[in-house]
Amino acid sequence: MSELSKRRLLSLAGWTTLAATAALVGCGKKEEAAPAPVAAAPEPASAASAAPPKPEPLKIAFAYVGPVGDGGWTFAHDNGRKAVEKEFGDKVVTSFVEKVPEAADAERVFRDMVGQGNKLIFGTTFGYMEPMLKVAADAKDVKFEHATGYKQAENMRTYDSRTYEGAYMAGVIAGAMTKSNTLGVVGSIPIPEVIRNINSFTMGAQSVNPKIKTKVVWVNEWFNPPKETEAAQSLLNGGADVLFQNTDSSAVLQTAEKAGKYAFGWDSDMTAYAPKAHLASAIINWGPYYIKATQDALDGKWTGGTASWWGVKEGTIDIVSVNEVVPAEIKGKVDTIKAGLKDGSFSIWKGPIVGQDGKEVLKKDEIADDKFLGGIKFYVKGVEGKVPGGK
């Protein structure tokens, strides 16, 4: 028999055996010759189960009183919002509404923010205090942060920056640069925050030039470039040759440049708007606080009913882009003041300090506490005119 025939017979025998095996298995009999494949060992539970879903990003909203492009207050807050995005990436989603008036319409905006699923909401101006309180009472699962206010709730807290520190350092420069010994301030709204800044600016100037007098024109708005321009021109016409502001646009600085005088940037670096007139900018860096508040919310450590007031020490207040025309001696004095504010060795509001009426408001070596600073409604000696609404 040939080899090919033998292979065919063996093949036929193999198929016969497989057929018989199949018949036995089909009858429910155990087949020992061909054991069933061994099942794979089960995977550990952690490997077999799907990865946990990624947490939803924290939705954060900001309400701004002015336009983002104001170059000052609102621009500074929006830089803080961008700092949050850079720090936390896809852990957060931020949004903002600009030009929200300090009126009943603000309540509607805050309710819309809640309805859109925002769980952390920042209101960035004093006039939002009452509207935020109302909405916070109806949205207990949302965290509210109010800038420059003084009322808190279980789910609402306040934060502020010590802008008077920047105002004082600007005053030191102004006192050295004036030739007329008359400074001008364009004031926004006569609340303690703004009055405190006017006084601090004046005291800074008097620390290097005791002859200083300060004139004030109020515009009763935070952002109104035409009114700010008119007020600035009025001050220049009244003999002021260095201007300061507590308003949000660059109009005061630009008005000074057209007149060949000096002025300061406020809240943000305004050098580019009027480089010849610009002596320095007293800026606010909201980034550190916004990042901390966001981290608190993400970590479940956010608590309401509290107040924060940050300054040079925390990296929130600074004076930047000092003009090269400012004498080196004055630059050095500003640097020393800044260092003292940072380490706590220097206090701006330290007695003796005398009010406009000649009465002592702080005794010698007495240092004002935050309660005192938060309630200032008077002018210090050297500021002309009356505080609107004051006695």
UniProtKB/TrEMBL annotation:
<dbReference type="GO" id="GO:0005886">
    <property type="term" value="C:plasma membrane"/>
</dbReference>
<protein>
    <submittedName>
        <fullName>Bmp family protein</fullName>
    </submittedName>
</protein>
<dbReference type="InterPro" id="IPR003760">
    <property type="entry name" value="PnrA-like"/>
</dbReference>
<feature type="signal peptide">
    <location>
        <begin position="1"/>
        <end position="22"/>
    </location>
</feature>
<dbReference type="InterPro" id="IPR028082">
    <property type="entry name" value="Peripla_BP_I"/>
</dbReference>
<dbReference type="InterPro" id="IPR006311">
    <property type="entry name" value="TAT_signal"/>
</dbReference>
<dbReference type="InterPro" id="IPR052910">
    <property type="entry name" value="ABC-Purine-Binding"/>
</dbReference>
<dbReference type="Pfam" id="PF02608">
    <property type="entry name" value="Bmp"/>
</dbReference>
<feature type="domain" description="ABC transporter substrate-binding protein PnrA-like">
    <location>
        <begin position="59"/>
        <end position="329"/>
    </location>
</feature>
<keyword id="KW-0732">Signal</keyword>
